[in-house]
Task: inverse folding
């Protein structure tokens, strides 16, 4: 439930009360200000879902001033024994409140760009020193979630002006983060990619699911009342930034060291993120009532929403086509998982050994003309095995390489087999 303080010329307060009662407002109060130009002040408590209806009903009153308190309130009223039911009637935020909050968040550039620069510093330190928790810290302070969600709000509202401003802020923040990371790599004379850069630059075939889930989660969080949301805004903002801050840092650092393959991967992720978030979040916002026209909002255009969704869907389709038709460069993470499953299948067919551990990963070696897939396998020799360690290593290596090539992984598999023996028991 929301609290509104409504100021109208003297004599119009009764009209406000009548319209508030028609919108099922509760705990209503009216008083008159003193002075040369007395005004009627009306205090209204109304359901979240009826805020925009009330604003629309009051729109024609002269010199109308409204103060909307964005925090939820508990309006208790008779009968007293229904207090529990009254406070548990928690509803989603009104569409006008969601929209105005989005507009309010695009005001300050100085603080916005400062956070983007600081995120670049923190993500660079994390990637340069191979410190995972610093990547989490960079996700917390990266300001990418705001413009990404505002783009979705603007798409649902059909506001081309807000779409332009939000996309501009999105890419400006990314460029600042990229520039800071690149500058730090140049200043500290970085020459090669760090292991954490290599790990985070690899893309999975299911990477599109993260921005789609992030957009839906962000929309739900913004729509839900603060008293009914089970997840904090910080958590959903971090989810949005989860696949933005590290790629932005990797792009900057990769530019500095000339690793253009990693730059391409980072750009792919950034474009996929914005498209996926806008597609899912705009659909959720529209489903929760954001439309092109509303109280105190008339600049929405009907055709903008389907066009924005169409552009996002086409962008996702183009990016996925690029990803699926250029294996394995944009599918390294998921292909490594599949390759590891094939390796373990091969080992199960050899009764001479038992699998201890196997790891499969793509390397970023600069060997021209090949996609290097490195497989490190540890097996334990069985007591009844007659073959030598060298023979087992050779046979397993050939079997694994043949299996990976036959399955069409389009890689150069390099296999390292380590044959281990359990200690003999002493009597």
Result:
């Amino acid at each position: 439930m929301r609290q509104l303080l409504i100021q109208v010329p003297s004599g119009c307060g009764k009209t406000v009360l009548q319209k508030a009662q028609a919108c099922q407002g509760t705990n209503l109060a009216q008083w008159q200000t003193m002075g040369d130009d007395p005004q009627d002040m009306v205090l209204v408590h109304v359901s979240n879902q009826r805020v925009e209806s009330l604003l629309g009903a009051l729109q024609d009153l002269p010199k109308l001033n409204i103060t909307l308190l964005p925090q939820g309130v508990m309006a208790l009223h008779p009968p007293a024994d229904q207090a529990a039911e009254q406070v548990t009637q928690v509803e989603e935020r009104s569409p006008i409140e969601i929209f105005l909050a989005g507009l309010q968040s695009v005001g300050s550039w100085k603080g916005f760009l400062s956070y983007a620069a600081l995120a670049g510093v923190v993500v660079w330190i994390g990637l340069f020193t191979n410190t995972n928790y610093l990547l989490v810290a960079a996700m917390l302070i990266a300001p990418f979630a705001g413009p990404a969600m505002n783009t979705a709000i603007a798409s649902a509202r059909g506001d081309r002006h807000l779409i332009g401003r939000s996309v501009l802020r999105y890419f400006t923040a990314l460029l600042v983060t990229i520039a800071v990371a690149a500058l730090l790599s140049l200043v500290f004379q970085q020459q090669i990619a760090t292991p954490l850069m290599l790990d985070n630059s690899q893309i999975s075939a299911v990477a599109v699911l993260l921005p789609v889930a992030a957009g839906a989660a962000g929309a739900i969080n913004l729509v839900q009342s603060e008293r009914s949301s089970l997840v904090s805004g910080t958590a959903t903002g971090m989810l949005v930034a989860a696949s933005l801050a590290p790629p932005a840092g990797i792009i900057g650092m990769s530019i500095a060291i000339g690793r253009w393959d990693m730059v391409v991967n980072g750009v792919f992720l950034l474009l996929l993120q914005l498209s996926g978030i806008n597609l899912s979040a705009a659909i959720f916002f529209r489903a929760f009532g954001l439309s092109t026209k509303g109280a105190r909002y008339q600049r929405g255009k009907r055709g903008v929403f389907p066009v924005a969704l169409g552009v996002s869907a086409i962008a996702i389709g183009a990016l996925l086509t690029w990803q699926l038709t250029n294996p394995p460069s944009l599918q390294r993470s998921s292909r490594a998982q599949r390759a590891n499953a094939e390796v373990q299948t091969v080992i199960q067919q050899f009764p001479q050994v038992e699998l201890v551990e196997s790891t499969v990963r793509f390397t970023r070696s600069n060997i021209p003309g090949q996609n290097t897939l490195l497989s490190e396998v540890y097996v334990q020799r069985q007591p009844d095995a007659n073959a030598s360690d060298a023979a087992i290593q050779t046979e397993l290596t050939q079997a694994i390489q043949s299996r990976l090539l036959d399955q069409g992984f389009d890689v150069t598999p390099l296999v390292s087999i380590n044959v281990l023996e359990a200690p003999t028991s002493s009597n």
About this structure: The domain at 2-91 is CATH 3.30.70.120 (Alpha-Beta Plaits). The chain has a mean pLDDT of 84. The first helix runs from residue 13 to 22.
